[in-house]
Amino acid sequence: MPGTEFAAKVHEVILATNPGDVLTYGQVAALAGRPGAARAVGATLAASTGLPWWRVVQASGRLATGKEAEQARRLAAEGVPVRGDRVSPPRSTGRPV
Fold it and tell me: How many Cα atoms occupy the beta-carbon half-sphere of 8 within 13 Å?
């Protein structure tokens, strides 16, 4: 279980996504109550297991550095178009939790 209230909210936001949903780190931060805390979202994902981390991309649509192939494979399996190292076009549910 996450150690901070913010981490718990990040988990909640990400667990509320459905296959094919894509959010940016910044959107997750805003939905978790801390706009501008995109890096903290990345740190939370890096320290967590069991979350569908592949549904979170950079604001430009770029996939996670060092995990591009795995993230592209998982997103494509959910019907998300990926071109190279980016979600194309960047998509988002934008829905609050």
Answer: 4
Measured distance CA(34)–CA(63) in Å, rounded:
22
Looking at the whole model, is its pTM more than 0.90? no
Sequence ranges of the domains in the chain: 5-87
- For domain 5-87, give the CATH number: 1.10.10.10
* pLDDT tens digits, 46-77: 999 999 999 999 999 999 999 999 999 999 99
Element (H, E) at 86: strand 86-87
Q: Are 70 and 92 in contact (CB under 8 A)?
A: no
3-state class of 23 per DSSP? strand
H/E stretch holding 24: strand 23-24
Residue closest to 27 by CA, chosen among 57, 64, 2: 57
Q: Quick check: 44 pLDDT over 50?
A: yes
By the 8 A CB rule, do 25 and 59 touch? yes
